[in-house]
Amino acid sequence: MCCVEEVRTLKAVVGPLAGGDERLSFDLLNGKMTVPADIDGDAVIAAVSRTGMEAKPWECTSVAERDKANSRRQLLQAVLAGLSGGAALLGQILGQAFQAPLPGQMAEAVAVAVGLWMVLPKALHAVRSLRPDMNLLMSVAVFGAMAQGDWMEAATVSALFALSLALESWSAERARRAVAALMDLTPPMARVKEADGDEALAAPEEVPVGAVFVVLPGERIPLDGRVLVGESMVDQAPITGESVPVLKSVGMEVFAGTINADGVLEVENLKLAGETTLAKVARLVEEAQGKRSKVERWVDRFSAIYTPVVLAGAVAVAMLPPLALGLDWSEWIYRSLVLLVISCPCALVISTPLTVVAAMASAARAGVLVKGGEYLETASRLSAIAFDKTGTVTLGRPTVERVMALDGGDEGTILRLATALEARSTHPLGRAILDHAAAGGIAPTPAESIQSLPGKGICGILDGKTVWLGSHRYAVERGAETPAVRDAALALAESGRSVVAVGDDTGVRGLIALSDPIRPEAATALAALRQAGIRKLIMLTGDNTATGERVAAALGFDLVLAELLPEDKGEAMDDLARQFGTVAMVGDGVNDAPAMARSSLGIAMGAAGTDTAIETSDLALMSDDLTRLAWLIGHSRRMMKVIRQNIAFAIALKAVFMVLAILDMATLWGAIAADMGAALLVVFNGLRLLKATAAPRSEEDTGLSSPSKAFDQRLA
């Protein structure tokens, strides 16, 4: 595929086989159509062949092989355009300079045949299927000119149309290469450490999980892994968009495609090459091209109606003036042919998809993974954003501030009960309790029959007795609250701490107070969102009201909803949507999944290396940087502005030339030159978004490592 018009044709013939064209997805830049697995491949290939196009099963070839195949297709189109143009020029020289009309007409006929070589099969399919498209419009214009004896016009139009197709293919290939350059950041070789201590170079695809590879200063990290030896600053901008290199030491994870700045690292490989975070991001960006935005779908519907209307209008222009007013048939037929050429919808239909793809690719480069053009469009219309508290506006790494024993107990006993239940916990509060206990020399003895109660707490069996840990509300639910417990819990919670009750069958044995620091950039990020025009900022939390209000007051949230279970957050999102319209939910992608699913736009925080967060969200911030949100909204609005510019320009130009055609002030070759110029201008206007990247947070944050600078310079 090299034009969006062909997508509509393919939907018409393959859609019935798939049970509806909504089950098909298209990657225009890579010329790929994805169909349901239960469809017979031979039937798809046969259906495509009837359109004048050719299909074959997709092969996961290397970028170099795909580039070679695309280059061959571009060369063929360039050769056809060159031969058609040369034959048209020869025809003009023979007909005018040497007064040899017959040889001149023969050369012009060759120009027409070569220029329409790739167009006529598609035009014939458009006639058979009664679905007029640009190929049919152009073919009618060319043969109409020949029927009138305007062989030179026909030859010129054919040559210019062949040149237009070649330039359009070239511009689409340029866009594809630019997107590939943004995503193809993995080095071609990995330095694998062998058993005898020697190092051998191997392709990342050949490195097994568990192998150890070495990364020298200035090199890109080839695979996701865990540092075993060494310490170094690593530039993670290609994955997370962070403007400042991050210190990586033993035990920390590193990602494929990031840049090792100054130290030697020995890294244990954790994932196969095709499963790294970078590979998943690249795959999702590619798949996202098939998820069309509302404006893309509008353009598709518009062009489907526009083309037959224009064809009918051209027939009316050709017939009505001669029949009604007795005007010259030849003159009005020529005007109708000019009208057909300038009405070709190519510039209009190509104005949006390349713009959307460019915007998504640059967002990925800035550390924002968008899973479809429709989600980027939604971001431009946001009026309110809801945030989860823990791990989103706070660091998500709470610390224990106080352990309060009740009924004559001691802190050690309370921590022993709590760590027994949290021994295998991955919850931030559980990890904080375990860390606090470890610092006091208390090792956990895991409880048995542990049962997690989402949004409430956890219970289990220790030394034959039921023990439990949970929120103040859970203590009330168990009937374990007493006036003394309530007063103590309220006193701790009033200062904004999270309070966990620890108890057994006898009642509440003690309370643990924890606090979670606010992210340093949160206040700046929220201020930037207000400046970007977001009307309401809301915080949703399962914590108690006092804790929620303390954080909300510190950051200036407009509304805080506290003590919410996961399902409560989903219902809250429905209420917010009714009040404010388009509302996003920012969370961790797991506990907040119900709210994210029911929001207009689900945004996952810190998705780098987190499969669940990437998969459950519409949009993922690869780092934990909230300042990316304001940039994202501005970026999405820039995308919509460029799309509106392209659509307005394409329609305005066509309107002007339609008037000129009717007034006999335009020629066939001038019309196609204008159409070709319009198509190229909207493509290059859209590709400007490839240069849009997230700005660093401060002036001193601009110091990227030299390898990253070198890469950015090569990309530019």
UniProtKB/TrEMBL annotation:
Its EC number is 7.2.2.12. One of its GO terms (cellular component) is plasma membrane. Keywords: ATP-binding, Cell membrane, Membrane, Metal-binding, Nucleotide-binding, Translocase, Transmembrane, Transmembrane helix. The keyword Transit peptide does not apply. This is P-type Zn(2+) transporter. Residues 185-286 form the P-type ATPase A domain. GO terms for molecular function: ATP binding; ATP hydrolysis activity; metal ion binding; P-type zinc transporter activity. It is found in: Cell membrane; Membrane. It comes from Paramagnetospirillum kuznetsovii. Pfam families: E1-E2_ATPase, Hydrolase. The chain crosses the membrane at residues 75-94, 106-124, 302-320, 332-361, 646-663, 669-687. Belongs to the cation transport ATPase (P-type) (TC 3.A.3) family. Type IB subfamily. The keyword Glycosyltransferase does not apply. It catalyses: Zn(2+)(in) + ATP + H2O = Zn(2+)(out) + ADP + phosphate + H(+). InterPro entries: ATPase_P-typ_cyto_dom_N, ATPase_P-typ_P_site, ATPase_P-typ_TM_dom_sf, ATPase_P-typ_transduc_dom_A_sf, ATPase_P-type_domA, Cation_Transport_ATPase_IB, HAD-like_sf, HAD_sf.
